[in-house]
């Protein structure tokens, strides 16, 4: 772990989905939490670099379950909430959930929605596409929910958009196929990003806060490279406002064969991950169980019991390589940031 820590001091990475070890039990209970919430754990896109498509991240659960979870959360313990997946916009009552979260948590906790734009950003060019995207954003509740939408907007999402447009439901298996699909998908991605940014500018006049950003899978030092490659038409001012780096081009899926892909490194932050519909066990319960290395032994992420409260991850957990390096896999989330802690 010390070698990992020293390595990360030399690498400029924006934090991804891998928190850092080094907090004792009291510190875990006394800090503000970035809550990463795997709302809808599956996705029907085929992004080349995607690791979550190969990982069991829980099961889809009904609106009432999620509303009950957030009613139990103490908002004073949270710095922000990240709704992720899979693809969270596949959750059919997403707007109702966000409004319910805001009613339970109050106005101050920021909510970030991480999405490919599925069911949110229009693929129709020009004014009609902007209007449709505005309608979708308003239905989501961006005006009064302190909500920020982060749209995935890099080459691999372009390739996925192309495959979806022609009905291909599998990921490419070679670097040549990856490059071909990216080239064919870039116009589709460009149309969606233009619609999204134009819609955000209009909605923000009423919202009074930043509604949308574009998220690029790269380390933070390569953002300008991606701008030159994909978005030379975005002004300097808007690029500084909108563009955020993700966890890098992860060496997983078909991206293993891409020379510039990188492993997911630890960051200097610690997060709480909640996976509804999942729990950790000492042995497999169903055929969906996935083994995570936990020191010299293993724990198994598997389907939750009917009354389960979701799997909670704390510490330095590399979900890509399924290595648990610290913290607790069996920590009750509500014992850390639930209202009952007061």
Q: Using only CA atoms, what is the Rg?
A: 20 Å
Compressed to H and E, one letter per element, the order equals: HHEHEHEHEHHEHHEEEEEEEEH
Please count the helical segments: 10
Q: What do the pLDDT scores average to?
A: 81
Uncertain residue ranges: 1-23
Total strands? 13
How widely separated are the two ends? Answer: 34 Å
- Structure classification: alpha/beta
Query: What strand order characterises the main sheet?
Result: 6-5-4-3-2-1-7-11
Helix content estimate:
25-40%
Largest sheet: 8 strands, mixed
Q: What proportion of the residues form beta strands (DSSP E)? A: 15-25%
Gross morphology: globular
Structure description:
The chain has 342 residues and is of the alpha/beta class. The protein has a domain at 33-270. Helix content is 33%, strand content 18%. The protein has ten helices and 13 strands. The protein has helices at 2-9, 25-30, 63-71, 94-105, 126-140, 155-165, 175-207, 223-230, 236-242, 333-337, and strands at 33-40, 78-85, 111-115, 147-152, 212-216, 243-245, 271-275, 278-281, 290-294, 297-303, 311-313, 317-318, 323-324. It has an eight-stranded mixed sheet. Strand 1, helix 3 and strand 2 (78-85) form a beta-alpha-beta unit. Helix 3 runs parallel beside helix 4 (94-105), helix 5 crosses helix 7 and helix 6 (155-165) crosses helix 7.
């Amino acid at each position: 772990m010390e070698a990992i820590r020293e390595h990360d001091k030399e690498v400029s990475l924006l934090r991804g989905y891998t928190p850092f070890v080094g907090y004792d039990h009291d510190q875990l209970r006394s800090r503000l939490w970035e809550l990463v919430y795997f709302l809808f754990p599956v996705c029907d896109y085929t992004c080349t670099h995607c690791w979550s498509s190969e990982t069991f991240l829980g099961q889809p659960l009904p609106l009432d379950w999620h509303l009950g979870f957030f009613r139990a959360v103490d908002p004073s313990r949270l710095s922000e909430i990240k709704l992720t997946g899979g693809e969270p916009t596949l959750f059919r009552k997403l707007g109702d959930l966000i409004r319910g979260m805001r009613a339970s948590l109050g106005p101050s906790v920021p909510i970030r929605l991480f999405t490919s734009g599925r069911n949110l950003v229009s693929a129709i060019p020009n004014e009609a596409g902007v209007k449709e995207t505005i309608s979708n954003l308003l239905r989501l509740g961006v005006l009064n929910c302190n909500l920020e939408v982060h749209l995935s907007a890099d080459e691999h999402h372009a390739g996925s958009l192309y495959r979806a447009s022609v009905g291909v439901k599998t990921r490419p298996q070679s670097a040549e196929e990856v490059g071909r699909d990216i080239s064919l998908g870039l116009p589709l991605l460009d149309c969606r990003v233009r619609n999204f940014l134009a819609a955000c500018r209009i909605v923000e006049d009423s919202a009074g806060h930043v509604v949308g950003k574009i998220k690029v899978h790269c380390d933070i030092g390569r953002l300008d490279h991606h701008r030159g490659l994909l978005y030379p038409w975005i002004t300097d001012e808007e690029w500084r406002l909108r563009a955020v780096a993700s966890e890098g081009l992860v060496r997983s899926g078909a991206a293993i064969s891409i020379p510039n892909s990188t492993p997911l490194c630890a960051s200097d932050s610690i997060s709480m991950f909640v996976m509804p519909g999942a729990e950790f066990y000492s042995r497999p319960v169903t055929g969906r169980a996935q083994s995570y290395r936990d020191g010299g032994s293993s724990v198994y992420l598997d389907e939750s019991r009917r009354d389960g409260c979701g799997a909670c991850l704390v510490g330095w957990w590399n979900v890509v390589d399924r290595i648990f390096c610290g913290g607790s896999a069996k920590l009750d989330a509500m014992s850390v940031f639930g209202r009952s802690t007061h």
